[in-house]
Amino acid sequence: MARQFTQEELEPALVPADERLTSRALLSATIGNILEFYDFGTYSFFAIQIGQAFFPARDPFASLMLSLATFGAGFVTRPIGAIVLGSYSDRVGRRPAMTASFAMMSAAILVLAVTPSYETIGIAAPSLAIFARLLQGFALGGEVGPTTAYLMESAPAQARGLAVSFQPASQQIAATAGALVGEILSLTMTSEALNAYGWRIALLLGAGTLPFGLWLRSALPETLHRPEVPPPVVQPVRRSPAARRIMSLGFVILASCTIITYVTGYMTTYALNTLQVSAPLAFATPLVSNTVGIAAALLGGWLADRLGRRHIMIWPQITALLMTYPVFLWIAESRSALALLGGLGALTLIGTIPYSVFYVSMTEGLPKNIRGSAFATIYAFAIAIFGGTAQPVVAWLIHATGNALAPAWYMLAASAAGLCAMLMMPETAPPKLQSVANK
């Protein structure tokens, strides 16, 4: 530890003007994250239309499964991007890693948006689609770790929870933006036009943000060499039992969060295919739930800065676990707008809080010299294994059982696993917050 401390003392610190998280820095990091997750998530909202364009088949279910499998291909390269760009952020800096990931993401979404259909260029169409998803996965794999580390390192100790909560909140904002675009397109275009080119418009909106995003991130102050005053309470040495324990628990919690997030993201397709509701109502479902999720993520960070980390993870998680089955039962039986929008919105409100708090707890618990790469790698493997398979698994469960409650079964198992890991996570809040949390 002494050797590590001496090395950090020799590194240059930021100038005094950069010692606090400025509004511009927070906005730049958050907007870049929003744009990237919009690009990646928009695919899931238009899985049916993209399947028809690139993977035509006589059986609509087969076309959908091929489209979802290509969506899952984007998770295969996430661990590689996490290792490469995460390590780069720990060696060179957070800003260059975030800028590189954003540039690659924008290029990939542009390729996907302009690739002609299978009817026009044959097998080259799905090949280019898969390539674009692989590049997207690599870029996004290296986005989350450096951005989360940057938000935590930039913030004053008493505001780390709120600052880091902008990471999950920005993902919800991106999902909301994608759902809003889908809702507008579904209301203003005919079904034929939406299937033919409407989804391309949604993707091109994301690709058009490249110059703006690069400009924002190029102006970010670097935080890698900034001394943390006061330092995080939990400071395990790299590869120590404490570090391995936090990383193992973090993997389980992130896997739980991933399953719940992507099952919730599947609700548009679920509402259309399984519940057979109207397209405007189907696209409104994630729009409402994700809007609620933005407020819930920020609320979780705000509460964590006042009451500590563990309690704000555990109790909302228990509540969400108890709510899941009744909410899906209500949705499946009534198939009404109130059930879809109100039930899923309430579940998202409670269920987002613990995972938002986890982001800051995990980041505080990792050593600084591996913070970007470790968080990115754990996140990427959890996403690759469980995010890439969540929607195909749910689609298969519904198809095989004919039971509309199949998504609830998967979410219940994920929530229970996440709760067990949260119970074993250490408290990482500053000492003053720990005394409040223990009262």
User: What gap, in angstroms, lies between the N and C termini?
Assistant: 32 Å
Total tally of structural domains: 1
| CATH architectural group | Up-down Bundle
Mean pLDDT comes to: 81
- What is the helix fraction of residues, given as a range? over 70%
Q: Tell me the name of the CATH homologous superfamily.
A: MFS general substrate transporter like domains
Structural features, described:
- Residues 25-429 form the Major facilitator superfamily (MFS) profile domain.
- The chain crosses the membrane at residues 64-85, 197-216, 246-267, 279-300, 338-362, 374-398, 404-425.
- With 439 residues, this protein is mainly α.
- The chain has a single domain, classed as Growth Hormone, Chain: A (Up-down Bundle), CATH 1.20.1250.
- The protein is built from 20 helices and no strands.
- It has helices spanning 2-10, 23-45, 47-54, 60-76, 78-91, 94-114, 118-121, 124-141, 144-154, 160-188, 191-207, 210-218, 241-265, 267-273, 279-307, 310-334, 337-365, 371-401, 406-424, 431-437.
- The longest helix is centred in the C-terminal third of the chain and has 31 residues, at 371-401.
